[in-house]
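hey m, so remember when u said the tokens were messed up on ur end? i reran from scratch. heres the input so u can diff it against urs
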Amino acid sequence: MNPKYDTLFYDGSCPLCAKEIRTLRRLQRGQLIFADIHEQPEGSPQLPSHEDLLRRLHLMTWTGEWVTGLHANVRAWSHAPFGRLFKPLLWPVIYPIARRVYESWADRRYERKYVCALGVKKT
């Protein structure tokens, strides 16, 4: 990964995700790299599993740290001029609720789109 650039891994086959990425790509200040997870070599030693990448949004910071889920979303949007509007989602009073909403949405999206395609058994 490039120094001083965060890399956002997103699901390019998800219409909602692709729409958000198009908006973020247009608004960001040039310090965010976009990586469609379907175009990444599977089993790459530095990447989480393909299934993990599909389940939650992942962002690798320019220092090599992995940020996932709601934290990844807030960090990605911090590259846009109004990114500070997303910061309250991480405040202690709001975060537990925002995290549950994000994870519920992400789980439903994954189950509807990928459980059958990946051959993952529902529990």
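this time it looks ok to me. The chain has one domain: 6-118. if urs says something different then somethings off w ur setup not the seq
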